[in-house]
């Protein structure tokens, strides 16, 4: 009986060892599968890190470009402000110049009108004098009538 018990115990131990071997093989398969998955994930993480590095480099490059564009825009804004002030000053100077020219033209027009009035009076006096002298010197003739008509036309025109 001891021998039967020993055999039974040996069989139990053998079965337990076989079951442990089977379980160990399943665990090894699972470990190998998990190891493969970890390797794949590690590769993905490496690719993602490389992509992230490229994206960070692009972002840094874009930041540099934005800074340069901002500086350029600030410069253009300052130039625009300067030109607006310059245009305002030129506009004010033009208005003053225009008013000066208008004043000069008014004065010139008034002087010309006054000169025209004086010349017109002199022409009237001269034409009347010429007609009178011609009529006195020649007497009543046909020529003096024509001269008077001609001078009247000049005077009217």
TrEMBL record:
Q: Which keywords has UniProt assigned to this entry?
A: Coiled coil
State the coiled-coil residue ranges.
24-129
The protein's name: Uncharacterized protein
Q: What species is this protein from?
A: Cystobacter fuscus (strain ATCC 25194 / DSM 2262 / NBRC 100088 / M29)
């Amino acid at each position: 009986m001891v021998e039967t018990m020993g055999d039974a115990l040996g069989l139990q131990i053998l079965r337990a060892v076989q079951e442990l071997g089977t379980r160990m093989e399943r665990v090894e398969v699972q470990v190998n599968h998990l190891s493969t998955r970890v390797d794949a994930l590690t590769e993905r993480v490496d690719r993602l890190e490389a992509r992230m590095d490229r994206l960070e480099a692009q972002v840094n490059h874009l930041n540099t470009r934005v800074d340069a564009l901002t500086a350029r825009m600030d410069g253009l804004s300052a130039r625009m402000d300067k030109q607006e002030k310059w245009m305002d000053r030129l506009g004010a100077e033009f208005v003053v110049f225009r008013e000066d020219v208008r004043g000069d033209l008014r004065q010139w027009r008034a002087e010309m009108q006054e000169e025209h009035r004086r010349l017109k009076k002199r022409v009237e006096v001269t034409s009347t004098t010429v007609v009178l002298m011609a009529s006195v010197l020649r007497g009543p003739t046909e020529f003096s009538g024509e001269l008077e008509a001609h001078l009247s036309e000049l005077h009217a025109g």
